[in-house]
Amino acid sequence: MPTARLGETLKNQTLILANQDVIHSKSMVVDCSIRVTEPREVGIFCSTFSNSRIEVVKTCSKDWTGCYFDSCTFKGKYYNCRFGMDSQQCDLQAGLRNCDFTNASLNLCSFFNCTPNDLRLPGWPHVTIFYPSKNAADFTDLKSDPWLARLQYSMENAGDIIALTYHIPTYIRQTRPHLLKRWKINKLFAESRSEPPPPEPVFSLENMKKLLQTKPYVHL
């Protein structure tokens, strides 16, 4: 049976969240170990987490909006998640402070209401771009690499995101079909105009790493 923790204070507990369990309504979670077995079904919203360990057993692709995480550690796989994002349905100030993601796998994950110093993030082959919207113009000179060109496009539309993290091998697997499809279309256009065909997109982790290392706002 689902357990709803609404406006509760939870201290020194081990919490197993599954089914439709929720932590909601300005609950305070302190010094707890949280294991989320079914991220799609669990609701975490508008609550504060302090000095707690959070692990997802399956890939999490759900936003935990309206939540403030202070000195928390994260483990497991996260895809397209937004951490520290405010919610219009919650008047709690969301954000992160002194949080550790070094044992997590992150792809297309974004961080709000924090500073770079508040985040400990996984290294290469993860890539984190700090203040992506602000630095999008400077990133333009890396667009010769087709995958970095896609990163640059996402940076232009990042809004008030503080940090944007990719797991590069996963990101490449996801975007490769689109890039190849676009290349084939451009190749047909070139042939119709009797022009040389465009080069086929080539993937090189080492080349990407070398280019990204030139940018001071990129964490590898």
- Number of separate helices: 4
Largest sheet: 6 strands, parallel
Topology, number of strands:
19
Provide the low-confidence segments as ranges: none
Radius of gyration, in Å, reads 20 Å
The percentage helix is 10-25%
Give a brief outline of the structure.
The protein is an alpha/beta fold. It is built from 4 helices and 19 strands.
Can you characterise this structure?
With 220 residues, this protein is α/β, with parallel strands linked by helices. It has 2 domains: 101 residues; 98 residues, no CATH class. It has 4 helices and 19 strands. The strands form 4 sheets. A 6-stranded parallel β-sheet has the order 3-6-9-11-14-16. A 5-stranded parallel β-sheet has the order 2-5-8-10-13, with no helix packed on it. The longest helix has 25 residues.
Any descriptors?
220 residues; 4 helices; 2 domains; alpha/beta; 6-stranded parallel beta sheet; elongated; single chain; 5-stranded parallel beta sheet
Write the layout of secondary structure elements.
Blueprint (H helix, E strand, L loop, with lengths): L3 E3 L2 E3 L2 E4 L4 E3 L3 E3 L2 E4 L6 E2 L3 E3 L2 E4 L11 E3 L2 E7 L2 E2 L11 E3 L1 E9 L1 E3 L7 E2 L5 E5 L1 H4 L10 H11 L6 E5 H25 L12 H8 L5 E2 L1
Parallel strand pairs: 1-4, 2-5, 3-6, 4-7, 5-8, 6-9, 8-10, 9-11, 10-13, 11-14, 12-15, 14-16
Antiparallel strand pairs: 15-18, 17-18, 17-19
